[in-house]
Write a structure and sequence with these properties.
The complex is a heterodimer of chains A (202) and B (175). Chain A has 202 residues and is α/β, with parallel strands linked by helices. Chain A is 29% helix and 18% strand. In chain A, strands 2-5-8-11-13-15-16 form a seven-stranded mixed sheet. Chain A has a five-stranded parallel sheet with strand order 3-6-9-12-14. A four-stranded parallel sheet of chain A has the order 1-4-7-10. Chain B is α/β, with parallel strands linked by helices. Chain B has two domains: 1-66, no CATH class; 86-175, Hexapeptide repeat proteins (UDP N-Acetylglucosamine Acyltransferase, domain 1), CATH 2.160.10. Helix content of chain B is 31%, strand content 23%. In chain B, a hairpin with a 4-residue loop joins β15 and β16 (171-174). The termini of chain B are far apart. The model of chain B has no long low-confidence stretch (mean pLDDT 90). The chains are: A alpha/beta (202), B alpha/beta (175). The interface between A and B is medium-sized, with 29 and 29 residues.
């Protein structure tokens, strides 16, 4: 798949973002601190237009555990943890917040989507202040080719080729190829068209 | 010790935020809340830990009651200076908070709306001590103490203390 961003722009983007990306990476490697990563991610989320998308792609390419350079990230969207992993051909809309997720290839994510770091982020038995000590992050996997609609909230693994309708809240893991809708999300269509045609041999 | 340090740091930041806070306070006296909203939205754009402290400093000077030990996330803001915020409140990113009274140790997830956008409305939305509010919740009614509101819920009726409330329309599960 051809990269969405021209090579010259990616090089220029790396030139502009390294003062944010390099300290963020070093800080996370040496001190296990996410403060600098968080600062860079949020600062670059405010850059508008195509330029912002290039800069965010370059920044996340250098700082996330795994991230392809061709990611397209909308205005005011950001990753909240550098342990997230992103495949190739991923597009994310505006105002989305992504936690400790593994996003596989060709996933489409709409605007105002939240991917949480699991269902039990604050489920540690005591209500302790300080969002760093009393939390528990789980990895959420979004399968290849899935589509998450506008404003949905995802806190569980999603299989490949799923469709999550706008405004849904996914609270239980989804098998591959289903379409879900509602809050909490219920299966509307158990098999997507692509899988159906593959099964019937067309 | 840590608390004192935090308070000192926030007080030092008053030096930077007073040009936004002072006009906001004066205008609010005359019922003009737009100046307050301007300051709040400008400071919501500052990323990282420094942004959190600047917002805490601004709200300490402008809100009716606001503790110094609060964390208001990136792109989150209050729309009414009549709001009250307790000790150790954590608010996530992209939240809009109208006329609300937030108790101590309340935790609010990202993309949450609390209260109405009508800044002049006198009815305050109260959120009790140690309540947890999940991601993407809309709160339009009072919530009691030690409640948990699930992600994506729309709270349009009063939630009693100690309950868990989820979904849209709201389902309340008594613990």
């Amino acid at each position: 798949m051809e990269s969405q961003h021209p090579t010259s722009n990616v090089r220029f983007g790396h030139f502009l973002t390294w003062p944010l990306a390099f300290p963020a990476r070093l800080d996370h490697r040496l001190r296990r601190s996410e403060a600098l990563f968080d600062f860079g991610a949020k600062l670059l989320s405010l850059v508008p237009g195509r330029m912002g998308a290039y800069l965010r792609a370059c920044y996340y390419g250098r700082t996330l555990a795994r991230c392809d350079n061709d990611i397209v990230m909308g205005f005011a969207s950001f990753f909240s943890h550098p342990t997230a992993e992103v495949g190739s051909g991923v597009e994310i809309g505006a105002f989305s917040i992504i936690g400790t997720a593994t996003i596989e290839d060709r996933v489409g994510i709409g605007n105002r989507v939240s991917i949480l770091s699991g269902k039990h982020q604050h489920d540690v038995g005591h209500r302790d202040f300080g969002h760093e000590k009393g939390v528990h992050y789980e990895r959420v996997r979004i399968g290849a080719g899935s589509y998450l609609g506008e404003g949905c909230i995802v806190m569980c693994d999603i299989g490949h080729d799923c469709i999550v309708c706008p405004g849904s809240v996914v609270t239980k893991p989804l098998p591959p190829g289903v379409t879900v809708a509602g809050n909490p999300a219920l299966v509307v269509d158990p098999q997507c068209d692509a899988l159906r045609s593959r099964a019937s041999g067309r | 010790m840590r608390d004192r340090l935090k308070r000192a740091l926030v007080r030092v930041l008053h030096l930077f935020t007073w040009p936004l806070a002072l006009p906001a306070c004066l205008a609010a006296r005359f019922g003009m809340y737009s100046v307050f909203e301007f300051g709040a939205t400008v400071l919501s754009l500052i990323p990282g830990r420094i942004g959190q402290y600047l917002r805490a400093s601004f709200y300490m000077q402008t809100l009716v009651r606001c503790h110094h030990d609060i964390a208001i996330g990136f792109l989150s803001f209050f729309t009414s200076p009549l709001s009250e915020v307790g000790r150790q409140v954590y608010v996530g990113s992209l939240c809009i908070i109208g006329n609300a009274d937030i108790g101590d140790k309340v935790l609010v997830g990202s993309r949450t709306l609390i209260g109405t956008r009508k800044t002049a409305s006198m009815d305050k939305v109260r959120i009790g001590y140690e309540t947890w509010v999940g991601e993407g919740v809309t709160i339009l009614a009072d919530v009691g103490e030690a409640c948990t509101i699930g992600a994506g819920a729309v709270v349009d009726e009063v939630v009693q203390s100690g309950c868990v409330a989820v979904g849209n329309p709201l389902r309340t599960l008594v613990r």
